[in-house]
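Hi R.,

As promised on Friday, here is the backbone we talked about, encoded as structure tokens. Could you run it through your design pipeline when you get a chance and send me back a sequence?
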């Protein structure tokens, strides 16, 4: 689910901000490999390209989890406090 156990379920502003940047930079290949949509689903890809934030917010829980996993996999390592 959408938690970050290292910080009690919370993410920092920097992690959130970077996550939004990552979301904007996901490409078709990334999303197909993560099974967010199928390779021939051009309509879904166009919806994502038009507004990735809206796509993420309106997606069902399974798709949100897959996108979140992509975002988290691209976050830099957390520094010790």
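Update: got your reply. Pasting your designed sequence below so it's all in one thread:
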């Amino acid at each position: 689910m959408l938690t970050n156990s290292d910080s009690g379920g919370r993410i920092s502003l920097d992690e959130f901000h970077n996550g939004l940047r990552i979301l904007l930079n996901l490409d078709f290949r990334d999303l197909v490999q993560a099974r967010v949509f199928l390779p021939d689903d051009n309509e879904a890809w166009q919806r994502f390209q038009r507004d990735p934030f809206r796509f993420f917010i309106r997606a069902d829980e399974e798709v949100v989890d897959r996108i979140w996993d992509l975002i988290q996999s691209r976050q830099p390592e957390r520094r010790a406090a």
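One thing I noticed while checking it: Residues 61-74 form the longest helix (14 residues).

Thanks again,
M.
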